[in-house]
């Protein structure tokens, strides 16, 4: 089962920061996951819609200026990194799963993956781009048809993994609260991988393994490597 560092090694360092990414690399993970939002013509690695939980800032991230976002403390003196800064740290040393957090991210991420392949040693096979925003994911697919897609869901769909199949996804990325054996089997029958978030405890890991899950997103990759 693949172990994917969720927002970096976010159980050991502030989530989605360069420190969390560096820690995950030190642990030797084969893949890192992060979240991307667009603000002031830049791609920022940040999960929440609002800034309050993870920084000393206030407001909706996408409505802020670059100057404001750059000076915020994202924990332990870390700043909110840009996607390019994270790409520079990873530099093709592991897979990078990029979650598009909303609209207006697909075009910029597509362009930046191309730049990272040219300048940082990444290959197209090292990316997985995912989203709950399925129209944005479909948009990304038209821009980079050579990159694998992860179709995200936080529920148990009526038609199981059909939506991911229709999106042309490589993986079905699903919430641990809603995954079950029937969903996993349906996804596998459609040729999809099943990746589950968020698994931090061994008993949950064992349950996922018993269902045949292909990978997990974890805040504590150190517990499973």
From TrEMBL:
<dbReference type="InterPro" id="IPR030395">
    <property type="entry name" value="GP_PDE_dom"/>
</dbReference>
<dbReference type="InterPro" id="IPR017946">
    <property type="entry name" value="PLC-like_Pdiesterase_TIM-brl"/>
</dbReference>
<dbReference type="GO" id="GO:0006629">
    <property type="term" value="P:lipid metabolic process"/>
</dbReference>
<dbReference type="GO" id="GO:0008081">
    <property type="term" value="F:phosphoric diester hydrolase activity"/>
</dbReference>
<feature type="domain" description="GP-PDE">
    <location>
        <begin position="1"/>
        <end position="225"/>
    </location>
</feature>
<dbReference type="Pfam" id="PF03009">
    <property type="entry name" value="GDPD"/>
</dbReference>
<protein>
    <recommendedName>
        <fullName>GP-PDE domain-containing protein</fullName>
    </recommendedName>
</protein>
């Amino acid at each position: 089962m693949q172990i994917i560092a969720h927002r970096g090694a976010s159980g050991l360092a502030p989530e989605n920061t360069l420190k969390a990414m560096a820690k995950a690399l030190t642990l030797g993970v084969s893949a890192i996951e992060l979240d991307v939002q667009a603000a002031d013509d830049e791609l920022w690695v940040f999960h929440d819609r609002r800034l309050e939980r993870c920084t000393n800032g206030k407001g909706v991230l996408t409505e802020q200026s670059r100057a404001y976002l750059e000076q915020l403390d994202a924990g332990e003196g870390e700043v909110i990194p840009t996607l390019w800064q994270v790409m520079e740290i990873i530099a093709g040393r592991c897979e990078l799963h990029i979650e598009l957090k909303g609209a207006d991210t697909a075009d910029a991420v597509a362009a930046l993956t191309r730049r990272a392949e040219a300048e940082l040693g990444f290959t197209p096979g090292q990316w997985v781009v995912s989203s709950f925003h399925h129209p944005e994911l479909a948009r990304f697919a038209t821009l980079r048809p050579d990159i694998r897609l992860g179709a995200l869901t936080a529920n148990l769909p009526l038609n199981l993994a059909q939506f991911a199949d229709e999106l042309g996804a490589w993986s079905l990325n699903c919430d641990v609260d809603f995954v079950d054996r029937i969903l996993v089997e349906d996804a596998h029958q459609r040729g999809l991988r099943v990746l589950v978030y968020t698994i931090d405890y061994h008993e949950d890991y064992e349950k996922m393994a018993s269902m045949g899950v292909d990978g997990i997103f974890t805040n504590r990759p150190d517990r499973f490597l």
